[in-house]
Write a structure and sequence with these properties.
By secondary structure, the chain is of the alpha/beta class. It has a single domain (6-262), classed as Rossmann fold, CATH 3.40.50.720. It is built from 13 helices and seven strands. It has helices at 15-24, 37-49, 64-77, 96-115, 131-134, 140-148, 151-154, 158-164, 168-191, 208-214, 219-228, 237-248, 266-271, and strands at 6-11, 29-34, 53-58, 79-85, 123-127, 196-202, 259-262. α6 (140-148) packs across α9 (168-191). The chain is globular.
Length: 282
């Protein structure tokens, strides 16, 4: 029976977002949000045919007013019990400026807008990327500035502005690193409302975005990471949905403010100096 008071918000209609709905959405009202009406309509129709109760919302996560309106819609439907934020663009899809605006500012807007919406027991998961774990860490001063800046101040921080004006690949890795910083900082404020928020950093996942990355200039290195990893395969959207389900569930009630690597061990292989070429045997 549908619980009219429990809302699952999923931002992004890509493969990981839809996998999260199917894993975590049964018995809940689903608010499905994306920037494109065509993708929203197509995804909502598919989920409706599977028995889900879906309300769609157009949103541009880079626009704070748009995110505020999405939060209002979700709250009007019931208690927002769970949020899964998957919206993002990759460096093969967008400029450095757009990457920063969507991947970093979009998360900052969501964390801010929903702080006053979440209730005791609510939980959110932000989908980030293993790229953030491979990026050079910001200085302690920059990290503190990223953590403490208001949403309005964040975009104008020198470190953020420099990333937005540079190489898209660097901007992507920086944005994902900064997402983990913002999630950690937001977990304290969310905790005062009895809510939790965590990030997941997927590895190379078999999605259209992941396939595009594998076909890019960095694809060879990415294939080397997969071949060298402990699991030795691409991830699936269901792998990310399973981790998301755990972080949204009561089983993780003592987990907040963290960034969970779900990458098959690729980052571990890089950091431990065990990167090998595809097909190389030990």
């Amino acid at each position: 029976m549908l619980d009219e008071h429990s809302v699952l918000l999923v931002v992004g209609t890509g493969a990981m977002g839809l996998a999260a709905v199917r894993r975590c959405g049964s018995g809940r009202r689903i608010v499905l949000a994306d920037i494109g009406t065509e993708a929203l309509s197509r995804s909502a129709s598919a989920l409706d045919a599977e028995g889900h109760d879906v309300t769609t919302v157009e949103v541009d996560v880079a626009d704070g007013a748009s995110v505020d309106a999405m939060a209002k819609t979700a709250r009007e439907l019931g208690s927002v019990a769970a949020i899964v934020h998957t919206a993002g663009v990759s460096p093969v899809q967008a400029s450095a400026e757009r990457v920063v605006d969507v991947d970093l500012l979009g998360v900052a807007h969501m964390l801010h807008s929903f702080e006053s919406v979440v209730a005791p027991g609510s939980a959110a998961v932000v989908v980030s990327s293993m790229a953030g774990h491979l990026a050079p860490p910001p200085s302690p001063e920059d990290e503190l500035a990223i953590a403490r800046a208001t949403v309005e101040e964040l975009r104008s921080l020198p470190r953020v502005a420099a990333a937005a004006a540079g190489d898209p690949g660097f901007a992507y890795a920086f944005a994902k690193r900064a997402v983990a910083i913002r999630v950690a900082a937001a977990s304290v404020a969310w905790g005062r409302h009895g809510a939790r928020v965590n990030a997941i950093s997927p590895g190379i996942i078999a999605t259209p975005m992941g396939r595009a990355e594998l076909a890019s200039a960095s694809g060879q290195f990415m294939r080397q990471m997969v071949a060298s990893s402990g699991i030795g395969r691409l991830g699936t959207p269901d792998d990310i949905a399973a981790a998301t389900d755990f972080l949204l569930s009561p089983q993780s009630s003592f987990v907040t403010g963290t960034d969970l690597l779900v990458d098959g061990g690729a980052v571990a292989a890089v950091r431990s100096g065990q990167l090998t070429s595809p097909g190389e045997t030990s």
